[in-house]
Amino acid sequence: MEPNDLINYTGTAINFKNETAQTRGIQLEALAWKADYEIGEAKIDDQHRQLVKLANNVYAIVERGEEGEDLLDAFEALISYTEMHFREEERLWLKIDSAHFTAQEKDHDKLARELRELIFPKDAVAQGKVGANLKEWLNARLLPHMMEHDQKAAAQIGA
Q: Which pTM value belongs to this model?
């Protein structure tokens, strides 16, 4: 799947998720986008919004109790897009010779590994907790990364 395919794939799923949330009257988002999350670099901000949409799509599938191929496809879309986004960010930070490049690269590697482990947990106790684990990862790891590391790096280019 190519990055544009991921956006198209999730667009449909997200629309379905929102309809389901309205008809069931429950909250199916792990994370709502806020302007505070923006770093001021349009391309990166757009990618961050897409990451949140993809994560919310996975979360919604889990909350609806769906398993199997739909969940794996949605999670693989999230993982693939996340990895593509990290490569894009790293190219930008390298291009501007960011002092934060090495720390970003290391954190990206760790975040990608953590994300993969959410769907394929090593600990059997974690099975069945993908939604809760994803929500926790978003709030405890991805958001702080965006708001601290990415904002510092973006400030270097005057974004």
A: 0.75
